[in-house]
Design goal:
This protein is 46% helix and 15% strand. It has 632 residues and is an alpha/beta fold. The protein has a 7-stranded parallel β-sheet with strand order 3-4-2-5-6-1-7, with helices on both faces. A 6-stranded parallel β-sheet has the order 8-13-12-9-11-10, sandwiched between helices.
Length: 632
Amino acid sequence: MTNVRDILTKYWGYTSFKPMQEKIINSVINGKDTVALLPTGGGKSLCFQIPAIAMDGICIVVSPLVALMGDQVNALKERGIKALKITGGISFDELNTLLDNALYGNYKFLYLSPERLQQEIVQNYIKQMNVNLIAVDEAHCISQWGNDFRPAYKNITLLREIHPLVPIIALTATATPEVLEDTISELKMELPAIFKNSFVRENLSYQVFKEEDKLYKTEQLLKANKGSAIVYVRSRKNSIEISEQLNSLGISATFYHGGISAKEKAQKLQSWRSGTFSTMVATNAFGMGIDHPNVRYVIHLQIPESLESYFQEAGRAGRDGEYAAAVLLYNAYDKKYVYQQFVESLPTASDLKKIYRVLNNYFQIPYGEGEFTKHNFGFSEFCKTYNLNTMLAYNALNSLDRLGIIQLSQEFGRKSFVQFLISSEEVLTYFEKDVTVSVIGKTILRIYGGIFEMATAINLDIIVSKTGQSIETIIAVLKKMERDQVVEMALQITDATLTFLVPREDDKTINVISREVEALNRKKTAQVNSVLNYIANTKTCRSVQLVSYFGETTASKCGICSVCKAKSSKLSKKEMQQIANQILIQLEGGDLNSREISEKLTFAETDILKILRLLMDAEKIKINPRNQYYLN
C-alpha cells in the first residue's frame, strides 16, 4: 500500500488535500463503509480514486452520469491510471472483451451504470474480480426521496451480496437528512463513517431579484464581470437566442446544450475555459464534471425545478475562493410557468398506463414479450399518431425511464441542427443543378429564418409534410449538401433509442410501481414549492435558507446575499428624501421607466426601486400601461 499523499502528488500534482478528503480516504482504507457528503467542488472523486489506487485490486464505480463517467475515465487514463467504462449501446462481444480486460488486465477502475448490474454476465465477472472498493457516485439516486431517484440503483446491493467484506463509499453533493438516512439504509451500509462538510460557501453571494427585463439586468452584471460566467436557461432554443443577444451587446458568449455533438461540446468548453468566450449560456446539460475556478457569476434566467439542482449549479461559481455571485432572476410569469411545467404536467399512474400501453402498441410488442428489445424512437411522430399532449407524454416517458420500465438513450429530446455556410445567392445557384435539392432546400429556407446566421433546429417530419418527399430522400439531400460544403449539420434521425426493460404486461406493469409514482409526484411538488418559498422569503439570509434545506441548522448570516445586503443598507430619512426629490425632478421632464430613471441618477438601482414604490404608495406618482412612471 502506497502513502496517500504520495499518490496525490504523483498523479494529481497536489501537495495537500481539501478539507475532509484525507479523513474520508483513511476511513475507506481502514475498511469502513463511508459516506462523503461534500458540496459541489469539494473533490469527491479523489475520495474513492486515491484509496482504490493505494490498495490491491479493482474499484467498481457505479454512476448514473454517462458523460461524467467518460470524463473521469479519460482523466484517469491521461494520468497513466488504467480505467474503463461499460455503458449502453455496445454489443455482447464488446461487453465480453471489456469485462475480460477488467478481470485480467490489471485495471484499477471499472465504471458501470446501475442498469448494467442487472446483467448476469456482468455479475458473474465481478464475482471473479479482486474488488477493493465499491464507489457509489450520486448516491442519493438510490433514495426514492432523492432529487434524481433511479430504481436501477437498488441493483447496487447485488455488489454487497457478491463481495460482502468490501467497503462501500457513497458520495453525493445534495442530500437532505431524510435522503441521507434512506441512502444508508438502501445501500445496506454497516455503521458507516459519515463525513459531512459544511455547505456554507463564505465567498458566494446568493442573490434573487424580480426583474421584468432580465436581459438588461444580465447585461449590467456581465459588463462588470472580470472573470467567466455561466447563464442557465431552460431550453436549447433560449441558449442560442440569449447567446446571440449577449454578443450583440458586446459580451462574448457561446451556447451549450444537450443537442450539440460531443466534439462541439469539447470545443465550446475549451473556448470558455481559455477565455475566448467570457460567458457560457447553457441548459442544465452543462455542469457534469465542469471544474473552472474563475467563475464569478452563475445567473439563472428561469426558476429551477428544485433547490438541489439550483444549489449544485450555483455552486459552480467562486471555486477559487474569491468573491462570486449566484443570481436568480425571475418575473411573475416564471413562477406560474415552473408550476405548470413541473407540477401540473406530472403523469399519474393512470397516465402512465395509457402511455405504456400505446407505446407497446406503437412498436407492436406482444403481451408477455419485449424484454430488452431495442427500437429507434421518434417522439414527435409517436405523439402525433396517438394525439398525445407532448408535455405530459414527455414527462411520462421520463418517469417510465426513471422507474426502470424502459430505458431511453442519451439523445432523447435532441433535434437536428442545420446552418447554411454560403450566401443566399450562391445557395440559389446551387439549387439550379437539381430539382429535388431545390424543392427541399427552398422549403427549409422558407420555414426557418436565421438559418444562414446560426445553427437552427429543424423538424424533419415538417419538411416531409411540406415537400411530399420521403424522410430517406430528405436525409440524402441534406448529406449531399453537407458533402458539397453548402451546409453544416448535426443530424438526429430519431429522437432516441428506446429499450423495454420488462416484458409487456400493460396495467400490471404500472400497478407494481403505482405507489412509487405517487410518492415521486409528491416529492416533485414539494421541491417546486421549496424553490418558490426560497424566492418569496426576503427575511432570512439566502445562504442560511439553502443550507438549512440540507439539514445544516447552525449556519450564521452570510452578510453578502441580497437579503443581508438589503438589511444592512437601510437608507436614512435624509437619503430617502434626497432620492425622492431627484426622481420627481426627472419626472417633471416627462414619463420614464425605472431603467431610464436609474440611468439618469447616480444612486443604487435597488434604492431607486424602493423609493419608487414608496412614492407610488404615497400617490405622488403613478405608472402607465407602458411601465412608465408619471407625476400624479
